[in-house]
Each structure stands twice: as C-alpha cells, then as structure tokens.
C-alpha cells in the first residue's frame, strides 16, 4: 500500500474538510422530511451544517417535481441563496452528475456555462466514447486554466488507474484537482465498509487531496478511517440517512457533527472554508 501523502507528524496538524452532501439526485421528502429540495432549503441547510462543522457543501438542484436537474440558472439561484445565508463561510461544490438523465456533452456544457468555483465530475461519466479524447483533454485544460476546484469521482481501483493514466499521459494539466473515492457503490445492498477504502489506497499515488463518501450506517466509520489516513470526509443524506448507532438521523447536521467528532478524536482540526479553498485549490 502507498504511504499517506503527509508525514505522521504533520497529519495531526492537517485540517480535515467535512463536506455535506445534503440531497443528491434521488432523495425526496418521502425518504426523509428534512431532505432539502429548494434553494431556500439549501440555504437553511448550509447554515445548520456550517454550525455543525462543515466547511463545504456538495450541491444538487432539483426541478419543481423534485427530480434531478442540471441547469445553470437553477444553480445560480441556489448559490445566491446559500451565499446570503453563510457568505463565503462554506465552499460550495456543484455536481455535474448525469443521474441517468444527462449525456456527457450536456454535463460539460453545464460546467462551461456556469463556471462554478468548485465542481464534482464523475470520471466514467465524461471519459466516454461519445467524447473524443481531444475534446476531453480540452475540457480538462479549460478547468485547469480557470482554477475551478474540480473533484474527480472514482468508484473503484480501475477508475483510479484510469485517472492516473490520464495524468501520466499529460491530458490533465496542473490545476485545482482532487479526487473522491466512493466506497461500496457496487457492494451487496450498497452498504459500505471501512475495508472498502483499502483497494483505493493500494492503487492511489497520493498526489492529490482525496476524500471519501460511503453508503449506510457505517458511513461515519468509513469517513473517520479516511481521516486517519490523511483523507477528507463527505457525509449527508445523498448517500446515507443513518447515524452510527443505526437510527435515522434527524437532519444532515447530525451527520456532520458525527464526522467532526471523529476528526477531533484523531486530533485533526476541522477545516474552514478558507482551509478547504487552500487545500483543494492548490496547484497539482
């Protein structure tokens, strides 16, 4: 297994970024009454999760019927509402997720139109036959040139190797890159375990900041394990509704507080939005 990017002495001093993913593409009020679906809902959630320890929000927007939406105007409305609620005290990352609705070209076009401060992009959603490699490289260069904090979503060690190959071949210029390891996406019942992190760490070269998200009641154990290895945490209703004791979380802020407790138990300080911008905005 590769060694952590940070020396042991420095790890305890390294802030851990807690990102809240409060809604995702699919969760609705029928799943939990506290799932935020509107711009005003997201603004209230931003305030509560900031107070609980989040330094960052992973944002989805929805259509009036609650279904998944990629739309620059809807994102701008939601970003404005969140900024009114918390200023720049949260780094807000928008998603380009397809959710089985959008094609790669539409996802890329949305990011180009919106030009967000931060965005998450699934590697296997844009590195597809529909997008010629030269076009993919041009999009990655555009992101790098504009210093958009771009988190590449990786689902297994095969995705990790593919991302490392793109970088080794020079298709990913230096920019504000990071990666997200999705634990247990293809496990039985889509329930994650901290053991799911090991193949990622065994394949990754630790060259960029990394975070994890996880499904089910072991979400907290998964993100705390990641923090112990120098990674960052993403929690929230997008992937999990349960507390570590198996009970239903009353809200996203409760999941954020659990994550913050885990980080503090490891001796790692909780990152502010300014810390998150410094960590995820670093040139690499």
TrEMBL record:
<keyword id="KW-0032">Aminotransferase</keyword>
<keyword id="KW-0808">Transferase</keyword>
<dbReference type="GO" id="GO:0046872">
    <property type="term" value="F:metal ion binding"/>
</dbReference>
<protein>
    <submittedName>
        <fullName>Class III aminotransferase</fullName>
    </submittedName>
</protein>
<dbReference type="Pfam" id="PF05853">
    <property type="entry name" value="BKACE"/>
</dbReference>
<dbReference type="GO" id="GO:0008483">
    <property type="term" value="F:transaminase activity"/>
</dbReference>
<keyword id="KW-0862">Zinc</keyword>
<dbReference type="GO" id="GO:0043720">
    <property type="term" value="F:3-keto-5-aminohexanoate cleavage activity"/>
</dbReference>
<dbReference type="InterPro" id="IPR008567">
    <property type="entry name" value="BKACE"/>
</dbReference>
<keyword id="KW-0479">Metal-binding</keyword>
<dbReference type="InterPro" id="IPR013785">
    <property type="entry name" value="Aldolase_TIM"/>
</dbReference>
């Amino acid at each position: 297994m590769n060694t952590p990017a940070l020396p042991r002495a420095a790890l305890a001093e390294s802030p851990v970024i807690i990102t809240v993913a409060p809604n995702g593409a699919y969760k609705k009020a029928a799943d939990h009454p506290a799932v935020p679906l509107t711009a005003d809902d997201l603004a209230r959630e931003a305030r509560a999760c900031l107070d609980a320890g989040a330094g960052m929000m992973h944002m989805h927007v929805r259509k009036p019927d609650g279904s998944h939406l990629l739309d620059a105007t809807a994102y701008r409305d939601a970003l404005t509402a969140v900024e009114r609620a918390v200023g720049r005290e949260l780094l807000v990352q928008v998603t380009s997720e397809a959710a089985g609705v959008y094609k790669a070209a539409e996802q890329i076009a949305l990011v180009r139109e919106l030009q967000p401060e931060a965005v998450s992009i699934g590697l296997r959603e844009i590195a597809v036959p529909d997008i010629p490699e030269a076009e993919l490289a041009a999009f990655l260069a555009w992101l790098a040139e504009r210093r958009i904090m771009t988190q590449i979503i990786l689902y297994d060690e095969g995705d990790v190797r593919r991302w490392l190959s793109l970088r080794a071949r020079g298709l990913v210029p230096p920019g504000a890159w990071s990666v997200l390891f999705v634990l247990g996406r293809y496990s039985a019942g889509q329930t994650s375990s901290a053991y799911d992190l090991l193949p990622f760490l065994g394949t990754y070269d630790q060259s960029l900041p990394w975070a994890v998200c996880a499904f089910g009641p072991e979400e907290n154990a998964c993100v705390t394990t990641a923090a112990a290895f120098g990674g960052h945490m993403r929690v929230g209703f997008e992937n999990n509704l349960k507390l570590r004791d198996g009970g239903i979380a009353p809200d996203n802020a409760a999941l954020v507080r659990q994550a913050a407790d885990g980080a503090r138990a490891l001796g790692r300080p909780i990152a502010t939005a300014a810390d998150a911008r410094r960590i995820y905005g670093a040139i690499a």
